[in-house]
Amino acid sequence: MKNNVIAGLEDREIKYLGETRRGKDHDKRIADEEGVKVPEGYEIYRDLGYLGHNSGDGAVVHQPKKKPRGKPLSDQDKAHNRAISSIRVVIEHVNSGIKRCRCVKDIFRNYVEDFDDLVMEIACGLHNLRTAIRIKNY
User: Fold this and answer.
1) Which SS3 state, helix, strand or coil, does residue 92 take?
2) Number of compact structural domains in the chain
């Protein structure tokens, strides 16, 4: 199972949670079908799974460069990819914060209609609560 998640870099809060899909579905196809558009002026850091997806007018998209077939990646492109990866690690930490609820990352054996969506919503809500408490205590 997989979901599209949009999170803020500064507050590490989950801003958007897409519906739960099969793990076989491609990230770009899911994003295209959900039709999420990011407002003008926002910056998006995403991986190569979304290559070719249109995120909305005016949004600045940062995505790593893909290595050309049979050729090495230039030093400038490697530095660009490292800079993006150092920012995207925050989002990977958000993903791991969601997966603290083991029922999200383990095999889900409940077949009740839309129960997997509810479990994911609860896991994201708990992540946002932990984040809010952590920020409040600093």
Assistant:
1) helix
2) 1
